[in-house]
Write a structure and sequence with these properties.
This is SH3 domain-binding glutamic acid-rich protein isoform X30. The protein has 140 residues and is an alpha+beta fold. The chain is built from six helices and six strands, in the order βαβαββαααββα. The protein starts with a strand and ends with a helix.
């Protein structure tokens, strides 16, 4: 499976250039195979991308902007959905790829515990970090 990233090599928009660089740089850092398909210099790439971005994902003018990301023929998303997946540590799922060993997403229970920001559960009630520190100081 090849990840296809549709880019515009000659975009006048710095925002688009930064988004494209962010996607490509992140894929390279994860050593994910991908192909860059230029929509600025290749009309076939531009037409294919525009036809295959789902209607609900197109902007109001109907013309999706790069970068757009596909796994072969399957639409993965645009920069915003890629960014969300990156923040949520779900890039492999976003791309429709199996994560390599050791990079799997944390189980939901672990995430919930982390969201409690370091709080511990003792005797079925939540203990904050501050309470834990006080206990340790009292024991000393």
């Amino acid at each position: 499976m090849v990840i296809k990233v549709f880019l515009a090599s000659s975009s006048g928009s710095t925002a688009i250039k930064k988004k494209q660089q962010d996607v490509v740089g992140f894929l390279e850092a994860l050593k994910i195979d991908y192909a860059q398909l230029d929509i600025a210099s290749n009309e076939d790439n531009r037409a294919w991308m525009r036809e295959n971005v789902p209607g609900e994902k197109k902007p109001t003018n109907g013309i999706p902007l790069p970068p757009q990301i596909f796994n072969e023929e399957m639409y993965c998303g645009d920069y915003d959905t890629f960014f969300d997946a990156k923040e949520d540590n779900t890039v492999y799922e976003f791309l429709g790829l199996t994560p390599p060993p050791g990079s799997k997403r944390k189980p939901a229970e672990e995430e919930e515990q982390e969201e409690a920001e370091g709080d511990k559960v003792e005797d079925n009630h939540l203990v904050s970090e501050e309470e834990e520190e006080l206990r340790e100081l009292e024991e000393d």
